[in-house]
Design brief:
Blueprint lengths: L5 H5 L9 H9 L9 H16 L6 H7 L1
């Protein structure tokens, strides 16, 4: 069992089920979802949304270039 704070859902725009890209990022950096700050959550989601809007597939390599 894990604990998720309200800030994840409100400020970080985190929704369940999460996207595949979020799981890939967490796995790549060896983070658990509870270790990610709401602002970090916003950055990951914003990057993913912008990539998808542009018709690109979000990848860890592209994410690392930007951040």
């Amino acid at each position: 069992m894990i604990t998720l704070y309200v800030d994840f859902f409100v400020e970080g725009n985190f929704r369940l089920p999460s996207t595949h890209f979020m799981a890939v990022i967490l796995h790549h950096y060896a983070f658990h979802i509870s270790q990610l700050s709401p602002m970090g959550m916003v950055r990951v989601h914003h990057f993913e949304f912008v990539c998808r809007y542009q018709g690109l597939e979000p990848t860890v390599e592209k994410f690392k270039v930007l951040y």
